[in-house]
Specification:
Elements lengths: L16 H8 L4 E5 L5 E2 L14 E5 L3 E10 L10 E8 L4 E6 L14 E8 L5 E7 L5
Length: 139
């Protein structure tokens, strides 16, 4: 179980403001280079593939697959019990580190390549963060 009130609150910057504005309205926003069409995450003001500053922001579909994870058993103020730290590959092709929620935190429940969907949780008045859960709810 996650105590969302104890999650460390990120500090948006001018480069990440669009991302947090999106999460506040339930959108997972990514960037795409207008020159080479590379889609990327995390947010930055230039394309990591070609260096172009001509980039656009768009809403991702919010679907992905579990690429890798570790189940952490060490104490954390925001997480009760074991919790999964995961790398999710979004349908748009980018990888995102997040947590898997609404699922048993066991190897039996967290299958590699399992379909995931984004869910948003309010952390503070200003911050909403994306997490992922198995498609169809609890596994």
């Amino acid at each position: 179980m996650i105590d969302f009130s104890k999650v460390t609150t990120p500090m948006p910057t001018p480069e990440t403001a669009h991302f947090f504005q999106g999460t506040a309205i339930g959108e997972l926003r990514l960037q795409r280079c207008d020159l080479c069409h590379e889609v990327y995450f995390p947010p930055r003001p230039f394309c990591p593939a070609c260096g172009s500053k001509a980039v656009s922001v768009f809403a991702a579909c919010g679907q992905g697959r579990l690429l890798s994870y570790v189940i952490n058993h060490r104490p954390h103020p925001a997480f009760e019990g074991p919790y999964a730290i995961a790398i999710v590959v979004l349908e748009e092709g980018v990888k995102m580190m997040s947590n898997i929620i609404n699922s048993a935190q066991t190897p039996e429940a967290l299958r590699l390549d399992m379909p995931l969907q984004v869910v948003f949780r309010t952390i503070s008045d200003d911050i909403v963060l994306p997490y992922f859960e198995p498609v169809g709810g609890d596994s």
